[in-house]
Amino acid sequence: MGTEGWCLLLCVALSGGAADVAERQWRAVDVVLDCFLVEEGKHHGGFASSKNMVKALLVLREVPMLDDGSLEGFGNFQLSTVAKDNTPVTFEASVNLVQIPDAEALLHADCSEKEVTCEISHYLLPARQEAAVETAAWFITNVQVSGGGPSVSIVMRTLGDAENGAALHPTLNLPQSPLGTVLTAVELQVTTQTPSLSFLLGSSASLHCGFSIAPSSDLTRVEWRLQHRGAGQLVYSWAKGQGVAKREGATLQPEQLLTAGAASLNLPSLTLEDEGAYICQITTSLHQAQQIIHLHVQASPKVQLSLAHEALTPTLICNIVGYYPLDISVKWTREELGGAPVPVSDASFSSLRQGPGGTYSISSSLKAEPGSAGATYTCQVTHISLDKPIEARAWVAPPEQRMTAFGIVFASSLFLLALLYLGLQRWKATSPKVCQDSEALWVTILPPQSKKKQ
User: Cα–Cα distance between 253 and 265 in angstroms, integer?
Assistant: First the structure.
């Protein structure tokens, strides 16, 4: 039975598990991942872009995970179940020195109809460390679960010793076990549960990054960097117990959790400048690995529908302001009394406008044809930041009612003007005259003065 049969057996066990078990218990389970081994393009981390890749198998041995009873009777993976004529390069990895917090997501990926991308490549230690560990080889594994699942980077060290007579693996030229596998131990893992996140403009964001290191290594540095539109910048760094924020308000809170493997970044009051790819890089005394989290900042549009030129040719104007990112959909519909909405396709759009904060605005206009009974027009706006489209409605009266309304407004305006004119004339008639004709004299009235004593 191959790896597909092994996964099928696991899915059956999970589907028939005891859901009524009140208390979950820890159980050691083998996690088996179909991978590709990159033979060229040795690098210090991340997915490789090498030409040559061969099939590989990664077996994480006895990973502790909580069991609700569905894993009862489930056995460990046996290499003998793999077809002999198509045996992949198999890595057996011990996880006794580190924690694999997202092992359940990896184990259940096939049953959840999610794909797991797994890539193994050679890992180069810094030059200052190579002499100290020249008898060992190093590999880094990058695992990504589709559909927004976790992403894990694992650094592994080989355990075999060729000097003691161990046979060499035909592909890797490294010591192999009697079963033909490459024995390794995981000494560092860096993971994120949220490789891609979206937050609204002005809100606060928390970017998850966790890690676990072997006791033989010490944590020396944590860095968060932002890559956006070809430019990179340091956001936050931590070293020797001290944190330095380059972005205002950025924190690793609380920093004491670094010793427990938590290096999540908190960003308050998001702006559009915060958008981009964040790199969480964990550096130990021996290793270095990272995770990338894509942060998307969104702003929801505000929609206002108004009616212009009501008396003549009615024109509807739908103003959409303050949205981000750029892509937006605007649809018009027309609905007569008792009828169904009908799409209208002859709307026009203004030029795109961008405000000082980076958000966009646009207007859509439509000449209305209400008919003899009037019609309701709807401007529907769809944007990635909205859970559901925004709809703005306006009723356009038939021509007769609009002309009647225009006549009433015009008559009212004339009446008000007439009242204003009559009031002005009355004011002129009753106001005192300062002069009678062109020869009139201006008279100055002085206040009375007290008489002087003679």
Answer: 8
**Six token digits for residue 214:** 């072997």
End-to-end CA distance of the chain: 140
Beta bridge mates, 313? none
- Contact assessment for residue 49 and residue 41, using Cβ atoms and an 8 Å cutoff: yes
Residue 388, CB-side half-sphere exposure with 13 Å CA sphere: 1
Which tokens is 400 given? Answer: 């007769």
> How many CB atoms neighbour CB 177 within 10 A?
16
Burial of 211 (0-12, 13-18, 19+ CB in 10 A): buried
Q: Which two tokens stand for residue 203?
A: 């809100």
Confidence class for position 263, pLDDT limits 50, 70, 90: very high
Return the bridge partners of 141, or none: 120, 154
Which pair of structure tokens corresponds to residue 192?
Answer: 């994120």
| pLDDT tens digit sequence for 111-165 | 767 889 999 999 987 655 555 555 678 999 999 998 888 999 999 999 866 555 6
What is 300-326 written as a DSSP string? --EEEEEEES-SSS-EEEEEEEEEBSS
Q: Distance between CA atoms of 414 and 417, rounded to whole angstroms?
A: 5
Can you list the domains of the chain with their CATH numbers?
1-193 (no CATH), 194-202+216-298 (2.60.40.10), 302-399 (2.60.40.10)
